[in-house]
# Entry
Amino acid sequence: MTLRVTVWGENVHEQTNDIVARLYPEGMHACIAEALNEDDAIEARTAILQDPEHGLSEDVLESTDVLTWWGHAAHGQVSDEIVDRVQKRVLEGMGLMVLHSGHYSKIFKRLMGTTCSLKWREAGERERLWVVNPGHPIVQGVGDYIELPHAEMYGEPFAVPNPDEVVFISAFEGGEVFRSGLTYKRGNGKVFYFRPGHETYPIYYDAKVRQVLRNAVHWLRPEGSRWVDSCPNVPPDQAPNPVEIKGESLHKPGEEGFR
Amino acid sequence: MTLRVTVWGENVHEQTNDIVARLYPEGMHACIAEALNEDDAIEARTAILQDPEHGLSEDVLESTDVLTWWGHAAHGQVSDEIVDRVQKRVLEGMGLMVLHSGHYSKIFKRLMGTTCSLKWREAGERERLWVVNPGHPIVQGVGDYIELPHAEMYGEPFAVPNPDEVVFISAFEGGEVFRSGLTYKRGNGKVFYFRPGHETYPIYYDAKVRQVLRNAVHWLRPEGSRWVDSCPNVPPDQAPNPVEIKGESLHKPGEEGFR
Amino acid sequence: MTLRVTVWGENVHEQTNDIVARLYPEGMHACIAEALNEDDAIEARTAILQDPEHGLSEDVLESTDVLTWWGHAAHGQVSDEIVDRVQKRVLEGMGLMVLHSGHYSKIFKRLMGTTCSLKWREAGERERLWVVNPGHPIVQGVGDYIELPHAEMYGEPFAVPNPDEVVFISAFEGGEVFRSGLTYKRGNGKVFYFRPGHETYPIYYDAKVRQVLRNAVHWLRPEGSRWVDSCPNVPPDQAPNPVEIKGESLHKPGEEGFR
Amino acid sequence: MTLRVTVWGENVHEQTNDIVARLYPEGMHACIAEALNEDDAIEARTAILQDPEHGLSEDVLESTDVLTWWGHAAHGQVSDEIVDRVQKRVLEGMGLMVLHSGHYSKIFKRLMGTTCSLKWREAGERERLWVVNPGHPIVQGVGDYIELPHAEMYGEPFAVPNPDEVVFISAFEGGEVFRSGLTYKRGNGKVFYFRPGHETYPIYYDAKVRQVLRNAVHWLRPEGSRWVDSCPNVPPDQAPNPVEIKGESLHKPGEEGFR
# Structure
């Protein structure tokens, strides 16, 4: 079964910064989608901030198994309505991969419930992403670590809830460390945060980074059925053990949607 | 050291519903504060939705070790600015106890990142809250379970992230079950969700429920130091291993606040 | 790809108790294997306590993707060597489903690190297993709950570490509750504890229970690669940043296997 | 209330290695106890492998709030009976701090359920332990990180279950990283693994390391009541909802201790 991926890109730096435009002439999202499409089991398309509904219409999300998210300069321009929509789909079971500066996106902060802040430095220093669980599906094919010659530094503390799993921990040339690969489950959806991807370095051309992107899409695939959220009233006579109403009550039995 | 608690009440049903007004003539918040003040180590005051800033000014939150939250009919009237403020204080280390229908409050949904929905029925049925960890500080003094003769039913699925601990699980007369006592950590703040407290029953007069409220306030006390969130730039020459800037860079080194 | 399952059965009650022998003339393990083999993607075989090496030779475990474990009367007769072997395979990535009274098996206690005790009563009472996450792969096809007309009661506290996910919570006719479906990850292996299965009731003939067994086997399948445990010495000149040995040292560099 | 700490030391290297004997003439355990006793709220005594019952009699453990564990060369000489005893006390609520090479102790492996393996190198290289949660009680007073000029390297993967919290992450001069401060809860007891402490370096004289030891003892203090493990039978007529026995049954009602 083909995994349908939507690669979301902010697509701002590509238009305003020469370095980024040179590195990613079609946009970072195009490069990420290309990396994913090298896997025959993945069918990746792109969507960008500037599209109507940021390219994330109900139809697009309905037909998306895994969404990847890269943003940096324009988090505030993402409409709350679209964030609501993406969150709903994650809880239903859609996978979400949040990339690099996406740590500060509305959708990631929404799902984490924390500020998602960190330390940072942009000096083109070396980063090594160490594998914490060598058997994990996400790290297959990367060996002991991924080495990136030039990267932005992100340092702890990373203000996120304790994850289900730490998959990568980075060590930077300057000395800092960072939990660079984290998994969460929210509702029936899986979430993977993956650190690399600063716009002024050719990170998404790195073979091992591309391998992780593909691995992660497979790991993030929806499993089970869609969890359709509701807050249903269960009338007393429809309880497994039917009950009589006792005493006075504020609500009428069966009254829907009060909550 | 005295624990400074602010008991927040929505205070709507008390004004509009005769049953609630009769049960809680001073308001549910007053009853909860009274239960807490039976403990000499606790100093509880109240704040309500109708107060300026909902009673949760910077000064009030600054001098609050633990905040308790009860709301139901007017979640939407709580201003987002106050929710931001409460969230910030939780991440810094303030404890938060979310009560009953507070599961649908803005602050709880904010911290959980999920819808926090559930099943419900209001028939005055019997509830038993079973203790899952008999050694846990929160359950001291309650024995094997708490029995409430009349309660609103909440049933699974409860749409929250997997908690750090399940402290209580309820069984209802009608047959449903619910994770009724859940702990989380967000930033440096502890969060406790405690289910009982429907407004039309005298739940907050129950001796065991009051004991749990007091126990939980102690467990929720701030520990360690305030975590002041920031997203600092660490200049290359201030790294533990000072680094040279390599290659071209989008940002100027030391540029603050881009993120 | 076919999932290779080994269904392990203690096979003691079947030989000593008329009721059990009548319910499960081929043994409980045979009934469980039959339930699994209804799924074309699963190939289940059986192994029993009385077999040489309890039927769990290196070869058998090597060719097992998921192991199911039912035991009750003879936990102490399982050799520690076989427990070591099963634990090793779980950490490498083999899935493990622990059934009912298997909560007190050596292998489950080994993997949990706790006593795994609980309350119990055998009165043939009704049990309902409520679904906590309706989208989860393990609960597909069971609706809101599974109802078993006659079951042994297990009650909280269940002395296990906090699980990754609570999938089922049971309510018993007598009033008790129990976390009846729990998931864990240990090493690269997934673990699922599933409560139903008392030997004197025809639990493993129940259609929904059989559906859960099949679902769980799929969920437990190995993912990623085998995690081969080791505790390697990394010589100073093979570090990513080669280091000089400083000062005196108890061990000689490169000395293997001290730890 | 004074915290009663027992500092357990293997006390083997001190007797057999000149460097260790010179660094820790009274034994490493004495140095650790001294660090703890600088805090007036702590009363630390020592126990060693060579003592009768390894110094961990029922009486000693009974009067111990927090136990610290350092071992390396003689894990196999610790009797299983004492390991059982320590595990029982942890589950009841006693805090446990496992130090450095104690990662391979019987008690730590017992509580984790995994191999607890890791990479290692002994070259006297620099280690920095970065703080992951600056508000956490355990890290108070250490700033952004602890720097140790000479340390043994431990590298990921660290084969332990996902912890409740990662408090420290180390970066080593040679490039490796390690989760150096981890918290767990097992039963009602808290567990803290703290990495530093190789015997041939003066680690336990470091002011920040000593601060963490003291902080951790406070954090590990027992809370709530002792969780006395049992596996009780609840007779049908003593259920909250008394039940009639239905059908045939393997066990007689009320029969104790079958499990």
Q: What stands out?
A: Chain A has a mean pLDDT of 94. The first helix of chain A runs from residue 13 to 16.
